[in-house]
Amino acid sequence: MRSTIVREESLAGFTKACGFEQFIRLGKGEEKSGGRERATILGDLWEAFLGALYLDQGLPAVEKFLNKVMIPKVEEGNFDRVTDYKTELQERLQVNGTVDITYTVIEESGPAHAKEFTMQVAVDGKELSTGLGKSKKLAEQAAAKAALEQLGN
User: Fold this and answer.
1) pTM for this predicted structure
2) Under a CB-based contact definition with an 8 Å cutoff, are residues 127 and 103 in contact?
3) Whose CA is closest to 137, among 80, 83, 78, 74?
4) What CATH number was assigned to the domain covering residues 85-150?
């Protein structure tokens, strides 16, 4: 569950729930390209806010804030569903012992500003599945999701 809560997408959701995205200062290009909605930026903002709160007011203030904002969402079950397919695949395969899971880029296509990656996931050297994504990270998740489906998730 921890890996699901601390994912960029989850942290971005907390940022939006607090309305913090309105305070981001972005360059014109980043603003035009949708930076205000980008999970990496919103996740970084969440982490920066918590760090600033800690430095300014200490750990008790951070705990109070998290108990008010984050913990209720976790208790509501907003993080019960699996969205981190890589972790789910790893946990599922390692139930019976250690396995070697590797992700390899097998194709990069598109212009520099709009790349698309095809990633292969292999277990103990044997190809299990492939996935497509706009980043290597997303392609790895897609490959892991396909592997879970193939294994009968």
Assistant:
1) 0.54
2) no
3) 83
4) 3.30.160.20
Q: CATH number for the 2-75 domain, one of 3.40.190.10, 3.40.50.300, 2.40.40.10, 1.10.1520.10?
A: 1.10.1520.10
Joined together, the tokens standing for residue 55 give 């430095």
What is the spatial distance between Cα 152 and Cα 50, in angstroms, rounded to a whole number? 39
Q: What is the DSSP letter of 115?
A: -
Hey, what long-range contacts does 143-149 have (CB within 8 A, 24 or more apart)? 143/103, 143/119, 144/85, 144/86, 144/88, 144/89, 145/85, 146/121, 147/85, 147/89, 147/121, 147/123, 148/85, 148/88, 148/89, 148/92
Instruction: Convert the pLDDT of each residue in 24-46 to its tens digit.
Output: 999 988 888 888 888 889 999 99
The span from the CA of 137 to the CA of 124, in Å, is 21
Q: Classify 96 in phi/psi space as left (phi over 0), alpha (psi -120 to 50) or beta.
A: alpha
Residue 45 CA to its chain's centroid (Å): 14
pLDDT in tens, 41-75: 999 999 999 999 999 999 999 999 999 888 887 77
